[in-house]
Amino acid sequence: MSSGSAAAAQQLTGNIFVRGSNFSGRTDWIRRRTGLGVGEGPPDFEAAYVRPEVHNCISGWASTVDQELHLSPADFSVVSHLVKSSCLNKLGQRNPFTLSGGEQAFLAIATALAVGTTACGIDCAAEQLDDFHRSLLFQWLSKTVSQDSSARLIADNRLDNPEVLSGTVLECLGNGSAPLITPNLKVVSAIGPCRLGLEDIWFRYGKRSEWVLQGASLALQPANAYLLSGQNGSGKSTTAKLLTGLLKPAKGSVTVDGKPVDVWQNPARLIAYHFQNPDLQLFGESVDEELSNCGAAREMQETVIETFGLKEVLQLHPLDLPFVLRKRVALAATICMNRPWVILDEPTLGQDSEAATNIARILKSLVASGTGVIIISHCEWFDHLVDARPLSISGGRVLMGSPT
After folding, report:
1. Of 46, 101, 121, 299, which is most buried by a Cβ count within 10 Å?
2. Is residue 404's pLDDT more than 70?
3. Euclidean distance between CA atoms 377 and 373, whole angstroms
4. What residues make up the domain containing 116?
5. 191 within a domain of the structure (yes/no)
6. Alpha-carbon torsion 284, 290, 294, 299, what sign?
7. Could you give the strand order of the β-sheet that contains 196-204, starting from the edge strand earlier in sequence?
């Protein structure tokens, strides 16, 4: 925190936008303010903290969204209008762990705002919301800023100009990490480039649920970047998992060079998938082991290690790292799988503008080497950097071009 700001912030209420680069101390400051700091005494049970890995902010005790929202004795009426205007309005009977990442983020934030009557920290969690739900959230924060005495502490890498919102801006001036290094990645897949597609795909989660995809078809060319957009819960991650072979459709097929293939018989053979939640793909006992297990030659591993600035953490357990570095390790591991296609789900989550800019350069290097890249992202300024061809999901279909 800039000189004198930390002490002053203890007296602040309302919306407080905490700016700073990765490793500047903003997360530590927000955690301390919400009673989670090491050595700070017992936590404040009228405070709440929402981290980037929003699935960890869901209790696990409730079987439905409605139960999760009403689980605590907090005054739910505080956020009832916010919930009724959001995606959660029609998801009351869904299990929270069946929601999309963006829907889980909105659920976690809404619950925290109801609970955090003293302080509520929203640490990069809102980066996972689509434009509609981000606008809904920040409009609500601005309108209700004078209605209570709580402090809403917000760190968000998608907020270029938080000054235009109703609140106070604080700067964290701690020393950031070394920037990502971006040499040209010479990735040549052993399988070789290939065309990728979907043909009349139908998919839903369980026989009683609504169809997520309804006759979706798609044709993608190698050595291109594609940006897959759509509202939270529209089926972006579902499409990625179908292409990768992590899910099997009720009907239809994945095609490679125009021919149907059973990708679910051999998941990830053609496509390396970077999960929105990096913890789902980290299994090694050290960062070095994690990358070594991905199958790339050691020379390529060393290039990727240098690219993502991971030399200093090679012997550490991936899950002991802060979220920002876990996300980078998972990205590095995805590239080390050395597949002709990669799908990256929210690759810039938790990353500051410098890191995100360098990630865009890395993706351009992949495309230049012949790799096909599919990006799922809600970060508009990052999306412009990657120069990707637009795809969108609407009404259960994947469309070329942005949604109207």
Report:
1. 121
2. no
3. 13
4. 5-171
5. no
6. negative
7. 211-220, 196-204, 251-256, 259-261
CB 365 within 8 A of CB 182: yes
Residue 324 pLDDT > 90: yes
328: pLDDT strictly greater than 90: yes
Average pLDDT score, the chain:
88
DSSP 99: S
Pair of tokens at residue 273: 């998938």
> What 3-state class would DSSP assign to 368?
helix
- The answer to whether the beta carbons of residues 107 and 69 sit under 8 Å apart is yes
Asked if residue 181 belongs to a domain, the reply is: no
CA–CA distance from 398 to each of 217, 226, 240, 339 (Å)?
A: 7, 12, 11, 23
Q: In this predicted structure, what is the pLDDT of residue 290?
A: 97
Residues 35 and 70 in one domain: yes
Buried b (16+ CB within 10 A) or exposed e, 210-240: eebbbebebebebeebbbbbbbbbbbbbbbb
Q: What is the CATH number of the domain that holds 387?
A: 3.40.50.300
- Mean pLDDT within 178-196: 78
The verdict on residue 332 lying in a domain is yes
The tens digit of pLDDT for each residue in 35-53 reads 876 555 555 568 899 999 9
Task: List pLDDT tens digits, range 96-154.
Answer: 999 999 999 999 999 999 888 889 999 999 999 999 999 999 999 998 877 767 899 99
Q: Is 391 helix (H, G, I), strand (E, B) or coil?
A: strand
Residue 190 belongs to some domain of the structure: no
Structure tokens at 230: 């759509």
Give residue 359's region: left, alpha or beta (phi > 0; psi -120 to 50): alpha
Verify that 228 and 166 share a domain, yes or no. no
Helix (H) or strand (E) holding 47: strand 47-50
pTM: 0.90
- For 260, residues 6+ apart whose C-beta sits below 8 A from its C-beta are 199, 253, 254
The single-letter code of the amino acid at 93 is Q
Number of domains comprising the chain: 2
Report how far residue 395's alpha carbon sits from residue 212's, in angstroms, rounded to the nearest whole number: 8
Single-letter code of the amino acid located at 222:
P
